[in-house]
Design goal:
WD repeat, four-stranded antiparallel beta sheet, mainly beta, about 10% helix
Length: about 270
């Protein structure tokens, strides 16, 4: 197998570079000389997460599809901590992303089963109200391309960034209660009846028919006296500003210096 780099990260002070290779090794390099300093052994599958500590230049975090999360001392080439993301009755969960808190006392990870894993010091009580599994209902919706090669959501035929804010669901596609739906930007001030998604039956690739969230409420907001979505308003405002900038640039170009007369150059 020809080795391939799957992820790369500099440490906090840029003295070291860590690369993740698809043979499951992590390699620590001197960023100035390019010298290989350490091979970090521990992962059993590919690694796509490398995160440096916010202020301790010795510390690097790695996580991968094997469900393992390691904290390394990259100056010594040793592992400091190891956590294995075992899910009861389902095997391990691949870890897709990790981030340190600004103070370096905590880090949070997300896995393939929709779990948010929070590690650190202190009490876990403030986090107990968070549901076990959290996905957006559009996370795994298929995409298509139109005649202009633009990406569209297959079901609604809309550009994904122009679609209404998604609903929060569990791993089986069942929507969470309305108090959690209000946590999604753009749904903060919606009435309860507009926080209930439409459920429908969808055929899977195996031919099995399952019930899941299939779309948003389609009632015209203006007819219902609702305020427009905050997210949609922001998108429209950004598009308007871009159009104005484009028009100003074109006007400046058309009114620019003629006959080769331009701003005089310094000798």
């Amino acid at each position: 197998m020809k080795p391939k780099v799957t992820m790369i990260a500099w440490n906090q002070n840029d003295n070291y570079v860590v690369t993740a290779v698809n043979n499951h090794l992590l390699k620590v390099w001197n960023s100035c000389t390019g010298q290989l300093l350490h091979d970090l052994v521990g992962h059993a599958d590919e690694v796509f997460v490398l995160e440096t500590h916010p202020f301790d230049s010795r510390i690097m975090l790695s996580a991968g599809h094997d469900g393992s999360i390691f904290i390394w001392d990259i100056t010594k080439g040793t592992k400091t901590k190891h956590y294995f993301n075992m899910i009861e009755g389902q095997g391990h969960g691949a870890v897709f992303d990790c981030k340190f808190s600004p103070d370096g006392q905590h880090f949070a990870c997300t896995d393939s089963h929709g779990h948010l894993l929070i590690f650190g010091f202190g009490c876990s009580r403030p986090y107990e109200k968070i549901p076990d599994q959290m996905f957006f209902h559009t996370d795994y919706r298929p995409l298509i391309r139109d005649s202009n090669n633009f990406v569209l959501d297959e079901q609604t035929q809309q550009a994904p960034h122009l679609m209404p804010p998604p609903f929060l669901v569990d791993v089986d596609g069942n929507p969470h209660p309305t108090k959690y739906q209000r946590l999604v930007p753009g749904r903060e001030n919606c009435a309860d009846e507009h926080l209930i998604p439409q459920l429908g039956y969808v055929a899977t690739s195996d031919g099995e028919v399952v019930e899941q969230v299939i779309g948003q409420q389609t009632v015209d907001q203006e007819e219902q006296g609702m305020e427009p979505s905050i997210l949609d308003g922001m998108i429209r405002q950004l598009q308007l500003e871009q159009d104005q900038r484009t028009g100003a640039d074109q006007e400046a170009a058309s009114n620019g210096p003629q006959n080769g007369e331009g701003t005089p150059r310094r000798g």
